[in-house]
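Tutorial handout. Part one gives the primary structure; part two gives the three-dimensional structure as tokens.
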Amino acid sequence: AEQGIVNLGEIKPAMLYAWRGPWSPGAAKVRDRLAPATQNLYVSYLHRFFKWAVQAEYLDRDPSVLVKRQKYERIQTQPLASPEQFAEILAATHKLDADRYTIRDVPEYGRDLRAIFLLMRWTGVRLIDALMLKRTAITDGRLNLTTKKTGKAIKDRPLPQAVLDALGDVQPQLHVRDGYYFWSAKCEDEDNLTVIWTGRIKLLNRYLTLMEQDGKPMQFRSHMLRDTFAVDLLIHGMPLEDVSYLLTHDSVKMTEKYYAPWVSKRRLKVHDDLQQALIRMGAEFAA
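Part two.
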């Protein structure tokens, strides 16, 4: 309607390029910019729609074929720097609920986000698995589910009381599917479910002052909680193979690829622990 287009056949590749333009990192409005992965998700929707239009014979040619998914380097694994940062994130969810009527008339997403964040932080599940969590997935304080990305099972994973309490606060709601904690009844597509909640998570950054170790401002992303779960386990001495199993990775090599810096730190800790043990056994070392 904005472009005065009546028929699909009037849409040209140049129009689609112009439509995609505001998403780029150089977009004039920060709120319009989208991460590369999200951009590629929308491009996939674009391709699917026009492919259908051609198959349904509404179009002879697909104008979206020239709109390519962009290549990008995935964001480096980035756990939270301290427990204090996680506490700040949880505090921000309370602020989000307190301000929700001044932002827009929305339900208490802060309460839901607290439960999602605690679940991810203490179990290492991906965002999509948290969002698709069934109420029957928790029995006797333990988590059981099949992961969406890898199809692997998580069985009898113990849940800290803080996670159970937060999930207990999320009562069944009319706008949520029966039997689920967070999956909106109006959302049919699992990819859209992630996009919707990622937007809500972005709102939290207005309340956060997170910093990287070099002092630069840090944007919070939910995947940092999964990274924090893995890194803390490695630093506290859990074998890489066990961490890989808990993350439901396809191989230990994948785990080592993403968490190599912290694997090295763990090895240094092992050497420090070895030296202390040898000292207790009577060995001496040069100062």
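Part three, for discussion. The longest strand covers residues 153-158. The beta strands are 138-139, 142-146, 153-158.
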